[in-house]
Each structure stands twice: as structure tokens, then as C-alpha cells.
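Weekly puzzle thread! Below is a chain. First person to post its structure in C-alpha cell form gets bragging rights.
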Amino acid sequence: MTKKILAVLAVVFAVNFLHAQSKQEKAVAAAVEGLRKAMVDGDRAGLDKWTAPELSYGHSSGKVENKAEFIEAIVSGKSDFVSIDLTNQTIQLAGNAAIVRHTLSAQTNDNGNPGSVKLSILLVWQKQGGQWKLLARQAVRVP
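Winning reply:
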């Protein structure tokens, strides 16, 4: 009888663990979407909300920006995303961090010059004060 109770408790624990993990993955996905929307809208408050103070934002060109530089480039239109579509997204949780990979296809209008870009993106999110924040990003061009 004791073995059956332990087996049931183990199953309940496993189901609860997987459910909690799923909730965290959904929260990370919502954060990614919040950042995507803020980037398209050029929304300073949204960009600030979804990024960590320690942000390291790497472009496919090799340029790396801190939080203030990243936000200013988006808000000023220097880096202007007209649209961003994210596909093939994966989320891997690791404690209070999450590794997100996806393909970004975007229409741009950087400094008034229309263009398009397709990138493979690596995002590192960290839970800070109960909210997921983008800590690091690196992009590479898709051939």
C-alpha cells in the first residue's frame, strides 16, 4: 500500500512540475511577444519594461549595444522595424534563466531606408523581480 501511495505522489509531483514548467515557458513566450511588439511600435516604456539593466544586445553585423543604446536606436528610428515575424521558436528553461531561439524575418526602415532581414536569434532571458527580462541577444544572418 505504501508503494502505491508513493507512486501516486510521484506522479502528482511530476504532473505539477511539468505544469509549472509549462506556465514559465508561456510567461517567457509572452515576454518575447511583448518585446517584439515594443520594437515594432518604437515604444520606449515597453522596451524598458522587457529589458534588463545589464542588457547586451548583439546585432548580426557584430555591433553590440547596451540597454540605453538599444532603446535609443529603436525609438529614434535609426533601427526601425516595420514588422517582425518570429518562427521556429524554442524555449529552454534553466533556473531563473531562459534560452530562446527563433528565426526573425522583418521589414525594416532604418534611417528611412526600406529593407528586409532574416536572422537566427539567440535570446537569454532572466527572471528579475518576478518578471522575465531580456539579458542578452545575439543575431546571425540566415543565408
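Puzzle host: Confirmed. Bonus trivia for everyone else. The mean pLDDT is 90.
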